[in-house]
Amino acid sequence: METVLVIGAGKSGIAACELLKRNSDEPVLFDSNEKTDVAALKKTLGEDVKIYVKDLPEEVKEKAGTVVLSPGVPLDIPLVEELKSEGKKIIGEIELAYRYEKGSVIAITGTNGKTTTTTLMGEIMKNYAKRDGGRDVYVVGNIGNPYTCIADETNDTSITVAEISSFQLETVESFRPKVSAILNLTPDHMNRHKTMANYVAAKERIAENQTGENTIVLNYDDALTRETAKRVKAGVFFFTKNKEHTGDVEGARFVYMDGDDIKYEGRTIINVNDMNLIGTHNFENVMAAVAMSISFGVSEDIIAETIRTFKAVEHRIEFVKTVDEVDYYNDSKGTNPDAAIKAVEAMKKPTILIGGGYDKQSKYDEWIESFGDKVKALVLIGQTADDIEKCARSHGFTNVIKAESLKEAVDICRREARPGYAVLLSPACASWGMFKNYEERGTMFKEFVESL
């Protein structure tokens, strides 16, 4: 029995402790937040699990052989640095789960589009599994269901589809997906990664242990992911919106757009007008899913039929309701400027936009520039409101209104919107500070809209 120190008492940390307990290891849970509800954790994990808050005793540090970090715990905090210097093995939840993985893994990362692509891949693989003898399919990771919840349930024929964040990838060691994907790379989480080079390096760790027997799917239209192709050992499968690029790399496989058709080797997989998903960014997500599915051996008819019936995931350009001839959309998952740009681009009507939130030290210039004539007013909430307003005015966008709450922002939007307009919540910022997570922010937005 090994004593394993788990740092971080959120959903990921709890699931890690439960996995360790199920497999006869001794988890010790620590969280630096002194307000952590120890009684509630004990109720979930059992009285036998030792839980420490605020301060970690020296004897616990000494006894632990392995340390499991929750994704929200940075590698450079003093406690982690101390444990590293003492020779402790530092891993994350993904690496811990992978120790128990027996089946095949499809892993997806990127700055934007991960949740939509992962959810779509999950549906494709479930339909594939039904036709292939009823294999078990698990959809896990940063999508909300910790990998550690199911890792020890996997078997030789099971398929795990995992959404993986840069935070989770920082601590992988042996993690090796059969098929991986990096959808795109734009600045995000600079408060943690410090530099874009560090961020890119973290994302590329998804392919660190892949070999020529494996496949990585990359966005050819993204300069950074295109460069990634030169550094990986896995076989590369590109996707691109421009069919002219398909001859750029000799021998490379491409899924590509030809007009409104998404094609592979000249065959149309699906026409985008037959999909429920809207926006160019979603066409990219679908192309990535097509490439991953083909790499795994899924037939094109299963891929096409699944895409045809697939609907947008909650909180990602999700239509909520039409009120007084104004369409309301919830894009709470637009937690960085690039994601919010894609949401603005997907709007077909004059738009009132709600933005702002937690400060991740992002730059908002390109987001503001994307407004063009489409965005008629910008309603700001949260910690970043002043910085975004300043940025907007520096770019000549002056119709900026600040609100103290999301409820007030929705009320302002109703007042400002005219018949034929759209109202879009796409904050370009994280939700922390005002909300527990982007899901809570999106759910509250929908409740406010429903009550109009």
What keywords describe this structure?
UDP-N-acetylmuramoyl-L-alanine:D-glutamate ligase, 9-stranded mixed sheet, globular, 452 residues, 6-stranded mixed sheet, alpha/beta, 20 strands, 17 helices, 3 domains, Rossmann fold, Protein-Tyrosine Phosphatase, Chain A
Structural summary, described in words:
The chain has 452 residues and is an alpha/beta fold. The chain folds into three domains: 3-87, 3-Layer(aba) Sandwich (Rossmann fold), CATH 3.40.50.720; 96-309, 3-Layer(aba) Sandwich (UDP-N-acetylmuramoyl-L-alanine:D-glutamate ligase), CATH 3.40.1190; 318-450, Alpha-Beta Complex (Protein-Tyrosine Phosphatase, Chain A). Helix content is 35%, strand content 22%. It is built from 17 helices and 20 strands. The protein has helices at 11-22, 38-45, 58-63, 78-85, 93-98, 114-131, 166-169, 190-193, 196-204, 223-228, 280-296, 300-309, 337-346, 365-369, 385-394, 406-416, 438-450, and strands at 3-7, 26-31, 50-53, 66-69, 89-92, 104-109, 137-141, 159-163, 179-182, 215-219, 235-240, 253-258, 261-264, 267-271, 318-323, 326-330, 351-355, 375-380, 400-402, 422-425. The strands form three sheets. The protein has a nine-stranded mixed beta sheet with strand order 7-8-6-9-10-11-12-13-14. Strands 15-16-20-17-18-19 form a six-stranded mixed beta sheet, sandwiched between helices. α15 links the parallel β18 (375-380) and β19. α6 packs across α12 (300-309). The radius of gyration is 23 Å and the shape is globular.
List the helices and strands and how they pair.
Elements: E1 3-7, H1 11-22, E2 26-31, H2 38-45, E3 50-53, H3 58-63, E4 66-69, H4 78-85, E5 89-92, H5 93-98, E6 104-109, H6 114-131, E7 137-141, E8 159-163, H7 166-169, E9 179-182, H8 190-193, H9 196-204, E10 215-219, H10 223-228, E11 235-240, E12 253-258, E13 261-264, E14 267-271, H11 280-296, H12 300-309, E15 318-323, E16 326-330, H13 337-346, E17 351-355, H14 365-369, E18 375-380, H15 385-394, E19 400-402, H16 406-416, E20 422-425, H17 438-450
Parallel strand pairs: 1-2, 1-4, 2-3, 4-5, 6-8, 6-9, 7-8, 9-10, 10-11, 11-12, 16-20, 17-18, 17-20, 18-19
Antiparallel strand pairs: 12-13, 13-14, 15-16
Helix pairs in contact: 6-11, 6-12
